[in-house]
Specification:
Largest sheet: 9 strands, mixed
Shape: globular
Radius of gyration: 20 Å
Helix content: 25-40%
Strand order of the largest sheet: 3-1-2-4-9-8-7-6-5
Length: 303
């Protein structure tokens, strides 16, 4: 017996199949707001099937890429059939996931293991990887950013870990009445009919914010810690270079990387991008707000 779940995030459908009883509702709770009942067959982005046997997902191909971060290690192997195999290990070198992805990114099998925290990390990582790969040709980006909503418009705050993205979002919520957090770690950005939208996602880092809603994007800001507050507009290559590092992307996978580069170029053509050097204070939030809102009025007036 198996269970079948259908989810919609960023306007894209994906499905998850797993042996009955393998996953608890607790492990799937962040996906619940995105669960749906049905879809048209040609609308499905990918299917992830979980299996019980890790040995069924072994590869003897040479390593293509190897990464480490605060969560653990990711080892990637390109298959002879152009598919991709990925192994995940925790910071203590305990293997917790193996994933095999088809060449077209539409199908994947995965084994997940370890304690509940490791299993949750493995499931989230597998689904995020598949989402990034499969959505890349659909004008879609999965960003490492904090996203807020104000007066039915979306604003994205980018930056390296620890630069204050979540803090700046909190300052807007504290001092600008009506501001709401949309996602605090991995919002989805998608272009539809020439309009750039930001969506909530099932992946929001340490902040429990899993909203299945979207708003048009009105501004993108890259943050830097500084002893003063200053904001400047970015254009062309500088805007591109500001946005690209925050995009989930495997640079070695040329097909996906090309698609991501194309989408980033489209986004910066349509959305104002700024660089904000700031303190974590009220004045920084107001400076950012006034610059972004004034830019919107200027654009509307056509000045």
């Amino acid at each position: 017996m198996s269970e079948h779940r259908i989810y919609q995030a960023g306007g894209h459908i994906f499905t998850l199949d797993f042996p009955k009883g393998m996953l608890s509702e607790k492990e799937l709770e962040t996906y619940a707001p995105f669960q749906t009942d049905s879809y048209l067959g040609n609308d499905k982005l990918f299917t992830l099937t979980l299996v019980n046997d890790a040995e069924a997902l072994i590869t003897d191909n040479p390593v293509t890429a190897d990464f480490e971060d605060e969560n653990g290690r990711m080892t990637i192997f390109m298959q002879k059939n152009n598919g991709i195999t990925i192994y995940l290990s925790t910071v203590t070198d305990n293997e917790c996931c193996r994933i095999q992805i088809s060449e077209d990114y539409h199908r994947a099998e995965a084994w997940i293991g370890g304690n509940p925290g490791q299993r949750r990390y493995a499931l989230d990582t597998a689904l995020m990887l598949l989402y990034t790969f499969a959505s890349s040709n659909h004008d879609t980006l999965l960003l490492h950013a904090s996203a807020i909503e104000y007066l039915d418009k979306g604003y994205l705050f980018l930056g390296k870990s620890g630069t204050g993205k979540s803090t700046h979002s909190r300052l807007w919520q504290e001092y600008l009445y009506g501001t709401k957090l949309l996602n605090d770690d991995n919002p989805i950005v998608r272009i539809i009919n020439e309009t750039v939208y930001v969506y909530g996602s099932p992946w929001s880092g340490k902040t429990r914010c899993y909203l299945n809603r979207s708003v048009p994007v009105a501004g993108i800001v890259r943050l830097h810690q500084s002893p003063y507050n200053r904001i400047i507009p970015l254009h062309g290559l500088k805007a591109y270079a500001s946005l690209l590092p925050s995009c989930s992307c495997m640079k070695w996978e040329h097909k996906m990387a090309h698609a991501i580069h194309t989408t980033v170029s489209k986004v910066i053509e349509r959305i104002p991008v700024y660089d904000l050097e700031c303190l974590p204070n009220k004045e920084a939030a107001w400076l950012c707000f006034e610059k972004l809102r004034n830019n919107e009025k200027t654009c509307v007036k056509g000045v």
